[in-house]
Amino acid sequence: MTDTLPPEAVFSERDEAAKAILIANDRGGYTVPTAGLYPYQWNWDSAFAALGFARFDLNRAWQEIETLFTGQWESGMVPHILFHKPDPGYFPGPDVWGCNGPIASSGITQPPVALSFAPRLLRQDPDFGAERFRALYPKMRAWADWFLRWRRDEKGAIFVIHPWESGRDNAVDWDNAMEGVDPQGVGYYERRDTQHVDASMRPTKYDYDRYIWLVQRGKRLGWDDAAMAEGNPFRVADPTMHFILLRGLRELLVAGDHLGLDTEGLEAQIAGLEEGAKALWNTGMGFFDSYNCNNGIWANALTNASFLCWFGGVSAPEMDRHLQRVLDAAPYGVPSLAPFDPRFDAKRYWRGPTWAMMNMMIGEGAAEAGIALGEEVRKRTQEVIANYGFVEYFDPMTGEAAGGKAFTWTAAVWLAWAGKEG
Ligand code: GLC
Q: In the annotation, is 169 catalytic?
């Protein structure tokens, strides 16, 4: 796996602008994804932030991940949001979740990108990072073990128990399972997201009722993993989680061996997830896909998560061709859903738009697998950010900026990958 983080001394004007966003979104030891819309620490956003910081402040980069792990639960789970300081502008806040981890938090997790990015920080400066990595290592292993214990289905694929867990909130992947959630009794609640950005770009009320109902179920069960596993109405096997966890395990093995840490069990875990990846292969469609674990129904959706296979070190020649088709159809990066899918919606969040951080994992993974299109993905991501700004996401057909502004992970992806000279 290549290290893409040479600390370059020369900063372009755009690099400086990206750096300024990270600094402005820094709340002291952690960054918020963007002021207003997302005022807390989000799990996978922070992992990207760390890579951005690593271009100009390696100490701060480590700190971002260390702060994330201060929220780790006894079970090993690392929450998807840490509510470090109260902010009334966000819903659902700590009281709705009702969790009692070491820091007020949500009760679900997010893709464990940090497992892959901590080893990168280590590679950038092994002397500087060795002690910090050593301290994080058992925590990272515990998180991975938790995934394998509580989020692996009968076929060996990693699943999510809430759409927010995957980080792809309203993707078509969840539609079938969402139909099986009856949000009766969800009660009155007031959304805050639509006060910050246009409602036409956000998930619908139909989705939101179910998101909140699932949160209420977890709270009622005290967020106890065993209790929640029983009769769980929402379990969807997810390529995002699966491939990101698989890569994380591979990176932990290399870094752990390098530092002489105890890596027992990792090889078997990797082999297990390599085998489990086969369960995500939708034979009818010929691509990696998600399925509802409760009834086996496929999403039949070619998404940006399908293309994370290479990031996970898994190749399939069909996927190269699919990537070409998608890039032919959408000029501005890999869209979150193939434009030729009738469910495609160019501006609605995870049902069409291009996300820079997904493009980074896709582009890097493809390049590592020797696929020339990986570099093409990088160039297109560079172009769309350069022309339309460091926004949350982009319309993949027109490049138009959408969602929140001055976004941490878009700025970080620029610094770590997209903005580098080709
Ligand atoms: C949205 C995204 C999620 C992200 C969060 C903060 O919920 O779907 O992936 O982590 O915002 O940026």
A: yes
